[in-house]
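Backbones bend. We report:
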Amino acid sequence: MDVKGKAAVITGGASGIGRATAEMLAAKGASVVIADLVEAQGVETVKAIEASGGHAAFIKADVTDEDDSRRMLELAVDRFGGLDILYNNAGIAVGLPGYPRAEIKRWRRVLEIDLQAVILGCHFAASLMEPKGGVIINTASMAGLYPYKEDPVYGAAKAGVINFTYSLAPWAAKRNIRVNCVCPGVVDTPLVRRGIEAAKRAGQTAGIPAKILHPRQIAEAVLSLIEDDSLFGRALEVRPSGPRLIETPEAPGVRRKQP
């Protein structure tokens, strides 16, 4: 897909990976709806995009709420004439103290935002995209590809996103909607910085990596998934050494079909 002239919605778009992706898509000619709970940062991101000659709008939205999820997608249609790209990026971690010491409501919130909201976003996007097609990218994580003892609930949610993405591969042929996911390592975002500082204060530094990715590296990976029309139902792992497509598992006797 050529992103020029397309309309995109990015959740968690006010900072970190979401903001870097919003700015990159806008620079390539896409109109971007930034959905986030942090209004001040969201408005600031819109102003930065517009100052560079791009088109953007902000909507305060809780991605776990049905009405908010629907409204953020409909804003792209109303303001920019359609919905071509959805980037389900919003996410949180359990943090310290971790599971099972963390409050139940805290790790349930991780499942709601990191997994259930992705499913909800895809649900509403399908009917808006289906007439002419589109692209959906979900933020998963390397924590969903491999055991993640530091935050097993976060890892479980991201593993769910990856399997959900794999399972939507048939949408490419049935609905002309390509669904892929990006699986970053540790990225230098406000959320991660707060987590690292908390871990250092608690003396739990064993899980802190030596090399941390920049949000722009993930935005570039997301852009590659959007632009490559041959990719669907795929997971793209992003390490400091570079991106790597993960071989999609299939049930015994099932062959992968092209759209």
In short: DSSP finds eight helices and eight strands in the chain. The mean pLDDT is 94. The helical segments are 16-27, 39-51, 66-80, 104-129, 152-167, 171-174, 190-201, 215-227. The first strand starts at residue 7 and ends at 11.
